[in-house]
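--- STAGE predict ---
source: upstream dedup step, 1 unique chain passed
mode: sequence only
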Amino acid sequence: MASKRLGIVCKRTAIFLFMVFSVVTAASSLSAGQIAPQWEFFGGYSYMRFDSPPLGYPSWSNLNGFNGEVTYNITRRFSVTADGSGGYGSMITAYNYMIGPQYNLRKDKSKYFAHAFIGKAENTIGITTLIKSGFESVGRAYAFGGGYDRDLTPRFTFRVMADYLHTDTFGTSQTDVRISTGLVFHLGHFGRRPKL
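--- STAGE serialize ---
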């Protein structure tokens, strides 16, 4: 019982420290005068190494699918991102819907970013029985990760990112790894254009 309380205290402390860091970083970046997009729309391919042994499978499953994100940049460095992904494998389907803060470090035509998400996971196992043709479970999900963007044009960016993804479905926990790549479309901008 004491270890469970310690775990809750550690999680709350980590969340509090992350939020303080985010606010300080956002405040310090308000004076940055470079252009950044107001909105970013990402879509692309996603590979997930799914932790299926807790669900009765003999080994991990390889899921292929999609990942999409919508990011609203509050400042050049601080954003809010909504993330959705789907992975499909042999008799397993995994969907994740999450939202959270993102920290961006922009330089010339590159951007490095780190994010933390929380949301829901929806996993389906395609086992057919006499009464049902599949079992579905919805539970919580959280992810930590980051990535790299490289500008191709003023409107499009190439992205590569990786996430540690934790889900709780079917009464057990899964610790997954997700790698995604694709294109980002930029819409709008804020900041001052540099003087020529």
